[in-house]
Specification:
Shape: globular
Number of domains: 2
Number of helices: 12
Strand order of the largest sheet: 2-1-3-12-11-4-5-10-8-9
CATH superfamily of the largest domain: Isopropylmalate Dehydrogenase
CATH class of the largest domain: Alpha Beta
Order of helices and strands: EHEHHEHEHEEEHEHEHEHEEHHH
Largest sheet: 10 strands, mixed
Bound molecules: nicotinamide-adenine-dinucleotide
Structural class: alpha/beta
Strand content: 15-25%
Low-confidence stretches: none
Mean pLDDT: 96
CATH topology of the largest domain: Isopropylmalate Dehydrogenase
Radius of gyration: 20 Å
């Protein structure tokens, strides 16, 4: 097949990990006979340096014309001064909005070879395979904000339609997996959560009777996630709860550098990025873990291009590379056995080529 992919390397380690993601994408194209047109575009801090705008018009146009967007990471101290009026993060919010992506999928699997990389006991982690579906465009992050000398207010709003559409995304995913959906809220306190719970119950009963639904309070979910993570299949939650819980869940895998994400809306176009940031502390050293980005490429193949076999082949290649010991310092068994970013990319490539 032919597809157009917009590539936004971004800042810090973004370009380093994206370079490995692109090598893998090209190798998949060669191995399976596809033609991917890749267009690199400036975004984030790099775009501010170039033209004063984190999301230049030409970059936005390129993303809207593409079948999928691959992003590295944005931000860094250079653009974070409190008085800065233009910030890389504005570009990301603007891009998500323009693409209409409201569902953020974050799969968390624990690779058997990396059980020792997590701070949790291996016995708790074995067999963990869950996906978070975080609502991305509503809730308290987007509500009205007020401030006076004595108080500050952030308004949290959810509409019925917003809850319905995110629950449907999560339920469809659960149906393809183990058929278990946990909906996370704070319905004992928040009105938006009571609405969330009612709508989730109604949608699931009417449209997905074959998927089991459990409601869980967010505080309880935070606890159960590290107490019995293996029991979870798909978890759906609102924007801020999802923001916090997905960072917690990332530590099940052992490193932020391992985990991919997909942001989806209606239709197939999506935005794919590793869950980590631009990691200024290790940028330029060639030691960033590229696996989160390479696995984001696999999500892109699956969700935007409908190439399930290619996605599975790439995921398998990453698993085999990690199992063979090809690891950056964040997950290496010992410091002297750690590889560099491009060596890990090379190890994944070898396995794709070997088919
Ligand atoms: P971060 O994710 O960049 O880094 C947190 C820690 O994890 C650091 O010690 C870093 O070295 C390590 N780490 C992250 N990715 C890694 C990888 N691939 N391999 C090995 N180690 C890795 O978070 P932060 O330090 O809080 O933020 C740095 C900048 O990134 C900030 O400007 C922040 O706003 C931005 N940020 C951007 C995004 C995004 O682009 N979507 C997301 C989060 C943070």
């Amino acid at each position: 097949m032919k597809a157009r992919i917009a590539v936004l390397p971004g800042d810090g380690i973004g370009p380093e990990v994206v370079a490995q993601g692109l090598r893998c994408l090209r190798a998949v194209a060669d191995a399976f006979g596809h033609e991917f047109a890749l267009t690199e575009l400036p975004f984030g801090g790099a775009a501010i340096d170039l033209c004063g705008d984190p999301l230049p018009e030409s970059t936005l146009k390129g993303c809207l014309e593409a079948d999928a967007v691959l992003l590295g990471a944005i931000g860094g101290p250079k653009w974070s001064a409190p008085e800065a009026r233009v910030r890389p993060e504005q570009g990301l919010l603007g891009l998500r909005k323009a693409l209409g992506v409201y569902a953020n999928l974050r799969p968390v699997t624990v690779h058997p070879a990396l059980l020792a990389s997590s701070t949790l006991k291996p016995g708790i982690l074995e067999g963990v395979d869950l996906v978070f579906v975080r609502e991305l465009t509503g809730g308290i992050y987007f509500g009205e904000k007020r401030r006076d000398a004595h108080s500050a207010t952030d308004v949290c709003t959810y509409t019925v339609a917003e809850v319905e559409r995110i629950v449907r995304v999560a339920a469809r995913l659960a149906r393809q997996r183990r058929g278990k959906l946990v909906s996370i809220d704070k319905a004992n306190v928040l009105e938006t959560s009571r609405l969330w719970r009612e709508v989730a119950t109604r949608v699931m009963r009417a449209e997905f009777p074959e998927v089991s639904l459990e409601h869980m309070l967010v505080d309880s979910a935070a606890m159960h996630l590290i107490r019995r993570p293996r029991d979870f299949d798909v978890l759906v939650t609102e924007n801020m709860f999802g923001d916090i819980l997905t960072d917690e869940a990332s530590m099940l895998a052992g490193s932020l550098g391992l985990l991919p994400s997909a942001s989806l809306g209606e239709g197939t176009r999506g935005l794919y990025e590793p869950i980590h940031g631009s990691a200024p502390d290790i940028a330029g050293q060639g030691i960033a873990n590229p696996c989160g980005t390479i696995l984001s490429v696999a999500l892109l193949l699956r969700h935007s291009l409908g190439l399930a076999a290619e996605a599975a082949a790439l995921e398998q290649a990453v698993s085999e590379a990690l199992a063979s010991g090809a690891r950056t310092p964040d997950v290496a068994a010992s410091h002297d056995r750690a590889l560099r970013t491009e060596q890990v990319g090379e190890a994944v490539l070898d396995r794709i080529r070997a088919g």
